[in-house]
């Protein structure tokens, strides 16, 4: 075909696009995520307004949760592009608030309240000229009965994803592996950042990086099928993390954290390992478990939707066996970690961590260190430290599954 004919055809196509407004499919780009550029709280203890500034109109859904009182604003997945100096501060009826991605394709803003409120009105103001689009919520003081009635009415509309399910899909291929299955659970994520160090280190980032590295180290051994409960910055409810381990029929569940403490932050440092016990081994263990168990509250999950634990003789026997194996593995891990990193006094501890409540899977929670301690915060970001600690845990896991590994080798 001649160059002249090509030129005529190209011009004809351009004319059709101009006249009809139709753009070829290849030229259509997917819509960009909305960008939240600012937010603020105004008002007093009787009437408070919450405002989000954004670059385009979006759908939103408001829900209400009591004990403690919260307003939850669910959004499609958005970019929170606040300035470096921005602070999410409360005022009036809003004591504090937070934001972040909570599930795949969904972001969330959670308002902590000083008491029960009523939503007087909510609306979107379209952007005009240089003014952004605004989402506005007006809250007024109300009795508890009015709050609960309102919560029930809003629940009849679009409900957020149930807290008992994770958004991670476990495929049949993942379940079919003949290798020993290990689930590594990097704590927190998304809207829940976890602890924050003095220099701004976020627990959710530290534990995700460590989890990914430990997964690589274990897979290199050739004996294990290793899965992460999350491989990106997303929130997964505590029960959802346990469900992932159950769906994968895990042989071992390891939850990874790097917490902070208020008392003795300058002197208390080092790693520790926790197993499940309804009665905490000490006061610090109880306080850590209490904080970790608040993750769902921070993300605006309605805990009333959680089913009760099943209890019968068989379940009790399975729970007792899993607990014994959990303690056995924790002891092995402590012995290996002694030569790899600093441990706190009495590093083998127990408390009522929700994420360890799988009745048939050996489960432990590892505190890598304390972000409240400046030395630990610096250490947790070290590649050399990460290599030593992950290697120690690999050795502990190899010892724990020594008999299984030997059987698999003989079978092969």
Outline:
The protein is of the alpha/beta class and 412 residues long. It is built from 11 helices and 16 strands.
Q: Which residue ranges are poorly predicted, with pLDDT under 50 across at least 5 consecutive positions?
A: 1-30, 157-167
CATH architecture of the largest domain: 3-Layer(aba) Sandwich
**Total strand count, please?**
16
Distance between the termini: 63 Å
CATH superfamily of the largest domain: Zn-dependent exopeptidases
Mean pLDDT: 82
- CATH C-level category of the largest domain: Alpha Beta
Radius of gyration, taken over Cα atoms and rounded to an integer in Å:
25 Å
Q: Which structural class is indicated by helix and strand composition?
A: alpha/beta
Largest sheet: 6 strands, mixed
Layout of secondary structure:
Elements: H1 3-20, E1 35-43, E2 47-54, E3 61-65, E4 70-76, E5 79-80, E6 89-91, E7 94-103, E8 106-113, E9 117-125, E10 133-141, H2 144-155, H3 172-175, E11 180-186, H4 203-221, E12 224-228, H5 238-247, E13 252-257, E14 271-276, H6 283-292, H7 295-298, H8 313-337, E15 343-351, E16 363-367, H9 374-380, H10 383-400, H11 402-411
Parallel strand pairs: 1-5, 11-12, 11-13, 13-16, 14-15
Antiparallel strand pairs: 1-2, 2-10, 3-4, 4-8, 6-7, 7-8, 9-10, 14-16
